[in-house]
Design goal:
The strands form two sheets. Strands 4-3-5-10-6-9-7-8 form an eight-stranded mixed β-sheet, sandwiched between helices. The longest helix has 26 residues. Helix 1 packs across helix 4 and helix 2 packs across helix 3. The relative contact order is 0.13. It is elongated. It is an alpha/beta fold and 314 residues long. The C terminus is likely disordered.
């Protein structure tokens, strides 16, 4: 008889995860907590396997359980099988280079103020690859979140299980409406209302240390998110610390100026992946496009605009 028609003497496969958890913990209760099931469900799953195999897998005494010799053998085989399945699924996620979709997790402010305005151009140049954009910041779990890559400001500890590829160094400086700088502020930063974001409360102090400025605020205003502080600067409500690339388009269009230039913050933007970007053609294509769009931003170069040069008073 061919192997295709060979009868397999397998226990109920749906019950095996419950058995594996109970055997690993030596506890039905802890297995139930891990799998979000009831104690009774774990007990029934184990009983189904024991009935099918005709042997006891656990010794049960005084509400405690121990594996029998048969249970030990089944645990070894079950663990190997489940780990193999996990590895296969992860490998599928890691190397599905033929997928027409690349799922990208990106910090909201960066996505809204720099990445999204450029994605139309990416799609025109690469019509066969669609970008599924997810807005999120901070630590990322690529597999659990169903993402292929993440773009982050590397201001937190990134797990060593990921590959981090540097995109560009962050530069930042005060940005404001050009007319306000010349008239209301009289080209003096200490005349300005300083706009702060609670999500990045030290932005002004980081810039002052980097630039050597001794300026102080005439007044201050706080916003819940960095994006709102930058938009408030566009709307002439004050002066914010604007990092490249988040204010790049506003500087280029003349909506904002960076009269004192930009200083390095000490942080990098990075691309986070499971494997080196070159292993997946989709990621490689996206990475190359990102770097081309960034241009010479890594050095803090401002877009060509007559009103984005160094100012006189800090």
């Amino acid at each position: 008889m061919s192997n295709i028609h060979r009868k397999r003497h397998l226990p109920p496969l749906a019950a095996l995860p419950a058995f594996e958890a109970a055997a690993r913990h030596q506890s039905f209760s802890r297995a139930a907590e891990e799998l979000h099931l009831t104690h009774g469900a774990i007990s029934r799953a184990v009983a189904q396997i024991e009935d099918r195999l005709g042997v006891e897998l656990f010794v049960r005494r005084n509400r405690r359980v121990w594996l029998t010799a048969a249970g030990e053998r089944l645990l070894k085989a079950t663990s190997a099988a489940l780990n193999g399945l996990d590895g296969a699924v992860e490998d599928i996620h890691r190397h599905d280079g033929a997928s027409p979709i690349l799922t990208v997790s990106c910090e909201p402010s960066l996505a809204m103020r720099w990445l999204m305005p450029r994605l139309g151009g990416f799609r025109e140049a690469n019509p066969d690859l669609n970008i599924d954009l997810r807005l999120a910041g901070g630590p990322v779990d690529l597999l659990a979140d169903g993402c292929d890559v993440a773009i982050r400001r590397a201001d937190y500890g990134i797990s060593e299980q990921y590959i981090t590829t540097r995109l560009w160094a962050e530069h930042a400086g005060p940005v404001c409406d050009p007319d306000c700088w010349e008239t209301i502020l009289a080209r003096n930063l200490s005349n300005a209302r300083w706009l702060h974001a609670r999500t990045r409360p030290d932005a002004w102090e980081v810039w002052k240390r980097a630039s050597g400025s001794e300026a102080t605020a005439a007044s201050e205003q706080y916003f819940d998110h960095f994006f709102f502080a930058l938009q408030a600067a566009v709307n002439r409500l004050g002066t914010a610390i604007g990092p490249l690339p988040l204010v790049y388009d506003d500087l280029k269009a003349g909506r904002l100026i960076a009269p004192l230039g930009m200083a390095p913050t000490g942080y990098d933007y990075v691309l986070i992946t499971l494997d080196p970007p070159g292993r997946d053609p989709r990621i490689s294509l996206f990475f190359d496009w990102l770097m081309a769009e960034a241009g010479d931003m890594d050095g803090g170069a401002l877009p060509g605009n007559d009103m984005t040069g160094p100012g006189k008073k800090i």
